[in-house]
């Protein structure tokens, strides 16, 4: 359940099941359907078992194919590249997709739209050392939005960033929104992309109105690499 994308789907499925149960729409599978599935499974097993006991050219080809499918490792590289191109990043709930070591922190947002946390200009830019996020100059008490779907993992006050909200997103991303005048979410809340989470602070050009940072697998990255600011 550490992956918010997986947890989100599980929550939706559970909610749908509860709704259907309350309406009396859930019915146990019929004996006929179960018997049909068992019959098909038995036929497939018998066919494969018989193939391995027949000494014919066509059977030999089938034996080779089945043996290869059961013994050879599947190369997920091509599939992972296709998934990343279509959906933006490999699915974290399939460990095989993350076998290849990748020292560089890369955030792919192709085919995935991320939402700017607030409308405004960059007052202090990310440099990776002193500034591990950006400070935005926004309107007073401007609404602040979740950059992507995810779950709130922190909502409170810190010494460094004042009133702060942190959200865990799919693909190992986490976003932090600091210096808020108020937060309207709580820990455990599920957020949709672009959903309001609070308000920026009052006008203060010396500090900026909103502190925003992004992490990938626990490492801070430049928010401007994944978000377009005004």
UniProtKB/TrEMBL annotation:
Question: What is any Pfam family matched here?
Answer: Peptidase_M23
**Where does the M23ase beta-sheet core domain start and stop, copy by copy?**
130-223
Q: InterPro entries recorded for this chain?
A: Cell_wall_metabolism_enzyme, Dup_hybrid_motif, M23ase_b-sheet_dom
| SUPFAM superfamilies named in the record | Duplicated hybrid motif
Q: Mind listing the GO molecular function terms for this protein?
A: metalloendopeptidase activity
Name the domain of life: Bacteria
CDD domains recorded: M23_peptidase
Q: Which Gene3D superfamilies match?
A: Glucose Permease (Domain IIA)
The record's PANTHER family line, in alphabetical order, gives: MUREIN HYDROLASE ACTIVATOR ENVC, PEPTIDASE-RELATED
This chain's protein is named M23ase beta-sheet core domain-containing protein
Q: Which organism is it from?
A: Paenibacillus oryzisoli
């Amino acid at each position: 359940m550490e992956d918010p994308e997986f947890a989100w789907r599980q929550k939706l499925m559970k909610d749908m099941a509860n709704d259907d149960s309350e309406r009396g729409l859930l019915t146990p599978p019929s004996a006929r359907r179960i018997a049909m599935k068992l019959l098909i499974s038995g036929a497939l097993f018998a066919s494969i078992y018989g193939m391995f006991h027949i000494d014919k050219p066509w059977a030999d080809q089938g034996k080779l194919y089945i043996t290869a499918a059961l013994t050879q490792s599947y190369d997920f590289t091509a599939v992972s590249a296709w998934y990343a191109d279509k959906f933006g990043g490999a699915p974290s709930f399939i460990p095989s997709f993350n076998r290849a070591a990748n020292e560089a922190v890369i955030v792919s947002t192709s085919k995935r739209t991320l939402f700017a946390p607030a409308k405004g200009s960059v007052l202090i830019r990310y440099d990776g050392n002193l500034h591990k996020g950006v400070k935005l100059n926004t309107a007073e008490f401007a609404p602040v939005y979740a950059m992507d779907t995810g779950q709130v993992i922190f909502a409170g006050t810190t010494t460094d960033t004042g009133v702060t909200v942190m959200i865990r997103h799919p693909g190992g991303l986490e976003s932090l929104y600091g210096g808020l005048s108020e937060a309207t979410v709580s820990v455990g809340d599920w957020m949709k992309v672009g959903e309001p989470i609070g308000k920026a602070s009052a006008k203060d050009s010396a500090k900026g109105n909103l502190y925003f940072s992004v992490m990938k697998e626990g490492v801070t990255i430049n928010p401007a690499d994944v978000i377009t600011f005004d």
